[in-house]
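Lecture 7, part 2: worked example. A protein chain together with FE2/S2 (inorganic) cluster.
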Amino acid sequence: MNHVLARANVIHTPAPVAAQPITADRYISTDWLAREADRIWPRAWLFAGLERDLAEPGDYRVFNIAYESILITRTEPGELAAFFNVCQHRGARVVVNDHGWVKNFVCPYHGWTYGYDGHLDHVPDPERFTGGIDCEKRSLRPIRVGAVGGLVWICMDEAAPSLTDFLGEAWQAVAAYHLEDMTLYEDQTVELDCNWKAVFDNFGELYHVDHIHPQHELLFDCPTAENHLFDYGHTGVVIDGHTVNTRMPIPEKPNPYLKGQLRMFGGDPDAYDGRVLEIRTDIPRLRREAGPRLGWCYDDMSDLRLSDIEQYNFFPNTMITVQPDDAIVMRTRPHPTDPNKCFWDKLTFRRQPRAEVADRANVAFEPHDPADVADVPRPEHDQFTQDEIIAGNKSMTITIDQDIHLIRDIQAGMRSRGFRDAKLCDDEIRVQHYHDWLNHWMGDRSE
Ligand code: FES
Ligand SMILES: [Fe+2]
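Predicted complex, written out as structure tokens:
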């Protein structure tokens, strides 16, 4: 058996509290929603935007989470900066749209004016403030901000660990794919009738894949996936790719999807008759051989990363799926007042082929799809409802559309008196780990 690419088992970092039943209240009660706004969102590092959208001083983006609004910008020296989007005069939102560029931040209520560094630079009619105004004290209130892989993260808690300590080992795996070099192709948000954690749970297990995503049998071996459990509640899964579901009869010949993947990297599909499981072990070599000609460089990627697919869920609400030439960054956000609703954001990235990779290797540049070489403008944000997906007017990929077809019924079921708690199988260990950590975050961690 040539299983140089064989994977191990569950990599387990225990949660800090004992496993508890996952009951319905956390998905349906307004009390839970309110406590999350106090205990989760202000304490954790949260994925808040893209560095490429904050390229120049004065570029800004607003990130709304629960009842907080965060203003992120770039200062004159070129540093990222983040502030509560709250005017220090009487509390108005300083910025009311979600992105743009400004010369300075002018509050729409009475015109207090702040610099890119949040400093209060101008107050109309200052003589009307008897005793004057301390501009340092009345500057925008800063919060922590950092960027890795081109993703901007914010944290409202001064006592939280550093961004890199928080993201930890799970981020080290994502970092190997260099998201910062990929191109953003799609920026979507769907409004769903379910709790934000129901989406996160959906991406915490592969048990449902055989039932609602039949197309995955032709490309991945989900039942043998390796689960990873990390500190702070992060989890990951690594799935054999360029293969078939080994719980099913192994086909004699490669299916059309595998044939397409082989052809892209210069392999001969007919050579794999009776050897379908060897495609996965051969793909890294084929990729390395064909990569320079196609404009992709795989020099610093391991063989496993060239054959498989990885997904990491970062506590509390960010999910990142990575393959050598594409990535999906997803995030769920709660509805501010209704636990039965949420927003699900999806950013789709691809690595564009580059002629200089072929030049460096001294081979002719022959991208797989010449259209991929064209410049891609930053896509507009597209927001729509789950009904538009169900009607077929919008899509977030066939797999995610299949999830969306089901997810409001799951929420409806959890609201029923007929539901008590979840009974998880071994393959849903990531869901349990996440909720154990969620319980820890929701408790008083100072005890
Ligand atoms: S609340 Fe902003 S200037 Fe008055
Ligand atoms: Fe799914």
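Residues 46-159 form a domain with the Rieske Iron-sulfur Protein fold (CATH 2.102.10.10). The pocket of fe (ii) ion (ligand 2) is lined by residues 202, 208, 213, 399, 403 (CB under 6 Å). Keep this in mind for problem set question 3.
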